[in-house]
UniProtKB/TrEMBL annotation, chains A, B:
Keywords: DNA-binding, Repressor, Transcription, Transcription regulation
GO molecular function: DNA-binding transcription factor activity; transcription cis-regulatory region binding
HTH tetR-type domain ranges (all copies): 5-65
Provenance organism: Pontibacter arcticus
Protein name: TetR/AcrR family transcriptional regulator
Keyword Nucleus: no
Feature: DNA-binding region: 28-47
Gene3D superfamilies membership: Homeodomain-like (1.10.10.60), Tetracycline Repressor, domain 2 (1.10.357.10)
Keyword check for DNA repair: no
Length: 194, 194
DNA sequence: TATACAACCTAACGTTCGTTAGCAAATTAA
DNA sequence: TTAATTTGCTAACGAACGTTAGGTTGTATA
């Protein structure tokens, strides 16, 4: 556990919080400087450009999601369990840093090429891993879904909204959230006991 | 059915498309003017400010959602049917204009006061209507959910992602999407027939 | 003690931004 | 035919933007 952040990391963290709350475009370098208590020009002793911050946040988060998914997939089990593990892994990354997650999920479109293309490729690869779990579940009868693309979209939409309301100081722990979400996505709202 | 749009409506429509694809802040009045084939200054013969466009889109969509929900709620039925009707109504509004929906859902934070406060109040009122349907379903045993706030959040996240992938020229009709979504949210992925 | 480096400063650059003023042409209504 | 309205133009405003240049200070290293 690193106790002290380098100045560059401090800048990135502060910028991420601003990007989440105001958006990338609406956050000026002068806003960021004010939040850091320095002048806007001083930031350029540490970073090359405003977009560099966005790039670093987006690709660092992409890495975290892939690593978490790899661990979740490693234990061979049923599609149901695989999906549940993948959902839990995804939620844990999301809740571990809601600001960076929000930027990763919503501000990526401000990346310039070739970063934008790289980002979209990674995202598609990530979603494909979920699709194949669902396909497996459909094939062996665990799941009943009209369309696996549709199912994946619904799962991700449920997951990727968490950062807007998750509060680390709230009642639910990340694991509880993940368990509830996967239960709801797998079983639905309906009471199936009667 | 109105066949010709007033110039003001054309501007609003073109702006909405740009706001969806680039975001409000990243869309300049000169971008909008270029898309319309006129000069930026000419736009001000029709509107007062850039934000006025955003305000009109946001509150017009809010109205549409409320009206659709009112109709869906009018027929007294079970909580399950009420919820399904409300979901269908919501999806139909979303798919009827994905650009305006995207702006409504994602660009509202660029509203200035007092419009921002008004918007947030409306949104909370709308969500409260869904919460009360869920509460009713929990109370009479139709639903089994750990937390109704959590359930509503998950429902909305599933619904409000549609605009990112829905294609009017695609295979699924809005009604089919709505039916599939409500089925998935109510019953989950799991095959409950065995 | 001398050197290097990290961190920040002031001043300013060229650009883009939303918007206004004032005017002209075309279309519609009286 | 005249008047009003709609729709657009050019030119320009002040402000904000991302960024660069060049210099100063304090701290850690040799």
């Amino acid at each position: 556990m690193q106790l002290t952040l380098s100045r560059k990391e401090q800048i990135e963290q502060t910028a991420t919080a601003l990007f989440k709350s105001k958006g990338f475009s609406a956050t000026s370098m002068r806003d960021l400087a004010t939040a850091l208590g320095i002048e806007a020009a001083s930031i350029y002793s540490h970073i090359k450009s405003k977009e560099e911050i966005l790039q670093r946040v987006c690709f660092r988060m992409a890495n975290e999601f892939f690593e978490a998914l790899a661990k979740a997939e490693s234990a061979p089990s049923s599609a149901t369990e695989k999906l549940k593990n993948a959902i839990v892994a995804h939620v844990l990354v999301l809740t571990s840093n809601t600001a960076a997650s929000a930027v990763f999920l919503h501000e990526w479109r401000h990346l310039s090429e070739p970063f934008l293309a790289d980002y979209l490729l990674l995202r598609d690869q990530y979603e494909a891993r979920f699709r194949s779990i669902i396909k497996e579940g459909i094939a062996n009868g665990e799941f009943t879904v009209p369309d696996e693309k549709f199912a994946v979209l619904t799962i991700f939409s449920g997951l990727n909204w968490i950062h807007t309301w998750y509060n680390p100081a709230g009642k639910m722990t990340p694991v509880q959230i993940a368990e509830n979400l996967s239960a709801m996505l797998l079983n639905g709202l309906k009471n199936n006991n009667n």
